[in-house]
Design brief:
alpha/beta; 5 strands; 129 residues; Rossmann fold; single chain
Length: 129
């Protein structure tokens, strides 16, 4: 089971994603904005981050830069799940690599099965000792 930090401003979508990911065996921490997500990650380090780029106040790209500014979080995979088409996100290949983005899922073309598959593929499961 992996701890997933989900940053999704639309509560209905978040509930749907959370249900699918939980059914797949993951633990999901949902936040509607980037600042509370950063605070939560500081107390409960996630194994995977799923983030929407369209966020109020602190947009998703700003979140990515801030999240990656913490050395302890450099290895955590990030999946972008956004209504913003990839070619309009402003994430060129060099920036994509710099921010260590594992996958980009464009919401209109991403099924729940595909989201769960991405989570399963990129999440580094936690092992409690």
């Amino acid at each position: 089971m992996a701890r997933i930090l989900l940053i999704e401003p639309a509560r209905i979508l978040a509930k749907t994603y959370q249900s699918a990911l939980t059914a797949a065996g993951h633990s999901v921490m949902h936040h509607t904005n980037a600042q509370t997500a950063i605070h939560r990650a500081d107390h409960h380090v996630p194994d995977l981050v799923i983030v929407e780029l369209q966020l109020a106040k602190h947009n998703g790209v700003d979140f990515l830069y801030e999240f990656r500014s913490y050395n302890d979080w450099q290895h955590i995979p990030i999946v972008i799940l956004s209504v913003v088409p990839p070619h309009e996100a402003g994430l060129g290949k060099a920036l994509w690599q710099h921010l260590n983005i594992a996958a980009y899922c464009y919401k209109p073309h991403t099924s729940l099965d595909r989201l769960v598959a991405a989570a399963n593929e990129f999440a580094v499961a936690t092992i409690d000792i």
